Amino acid sequence: MNWKAVMLVASFCFLFAGCDQKALPLPDGNEPYAVVTHLKEPALAFLESGHKRLVRTEKIDEPWSEMVPIDSGRMVALAQTGTTLLAIDTNSGAVDELAQFDEALTAVTALPGRDAVAVADTENREVKLVSVEHGDVMEAFALDGSPSELLADESGLLFVLCADQSNVSVFDLETMEQINSFPVSERPAGLFF
Questions:
Q1: Are the CB atoms for 116 and 129 separated by under 8 Å?
Q2: What is the DSSP annotation of 62-89?
Q3: Are 98 and 86 in contact (CB under 8 A)?
Q4: What is the separation of C-alpha 17 from the centre of its chain, rounded to a whole number of angstroms?
Q5: pLDDT above 50: residue 19
Q6: 13 in Cβ contact with 95 (< 8 Å)
Q7: In angstroms, how far apart are the furthest CA atoms of the chain?
Q8: pTM of the full predicted structure?
Q9: Contact, 151 vs 191, CB < 8 A?
Q10: Pick from 112, 31, 117: which is nearest to 78 by CA?
Q11: How far apart are CA 116 and CA 104, in angstroms?
């Protein structure tokens, strides 16, 4: 299933947030879709990419701030409140609450080759690694600043931007240790490979 179809499936999670497990109504056919999340009035806009047109708009209870693919059949979504992670099976349409947090998370990224995601916990100044299968926190990295952006690469490195400190920390996911930290220009706003 392609990325656009994965985004469509994740978007339906809005309809089922708070439930233990629901089945998503998957789109008919194989046409890929893109999904746009609206923050002002919680809604999803479904775009048919082949014809580059709006298909429909659905009202939702709460928007998602992030959606990340885990592999070809699964993805994780972070609710805008930052306290709920959902796991979505993009083949069957099953949606499960993966984890609930007391503190608000601000970012999520998939960890390539692993059955886990990294989440940014700004309140506690740490990054947590969460199992996609069980929803438990497997590891946590303490930071000097508040993590604002996360990015993992194929080699097993996790880059953490702490915008309040204008600093990037690099963690080796094999050893679970920080291997580097360096300053960046004032007021950094994101990470991208």
A1: yes
A2: S-EEEEEEEETTEEEEEETTSSEEEEEE
A3: yes
A4: 15
A5: no
A6: yes
A7: 49
A8: 0.79
A9: yes
A10: 117
A11: 19
Token pair for residue 89? 């099976």
Token pair belonging to 63: 């928007």
- Main-chain dihedrals φ then ψ at residue 176, nearest 5 degrees: 60, 35
For 140-155, how does the pLDDT look when each residue is reduced to its tens digit (9 = 90+)?
999 999 999 999 999 9
Indicate the residue type of 22: K
Pick the more confident residue, 14 or 173: 173
Q: Which two structure tokens, joined as six digits, stand for 92?
A: 């069957």
- 60-98 pLDDT tens trace: 667 778 889 898 778 898 888 889 998 877 777 677 889
What residue type is 18 in one-letter code?
G
SS3 state of residue 60: coil
40-49 contact pairs (CB < 8 A, 24+): 42/14, 44/11, 44/12, 44/14, 46/8, 46/11, 49/4
* Measured distance between the N- and C-terminal CA atoms of the chain, rounded to whole angstroms: 23
Pick from 84, 83, 159, 80: nearest CA to 118 = 159
Q: Which of 5, 143, 9 is nearest to 87 (CA)?
A: 9
- Angular region, 189: left φ>0, alpha ψ -120 to 50, beta rest: alpha
Residue 7 main-chain phi, psi, to 5 deg: -65, -40
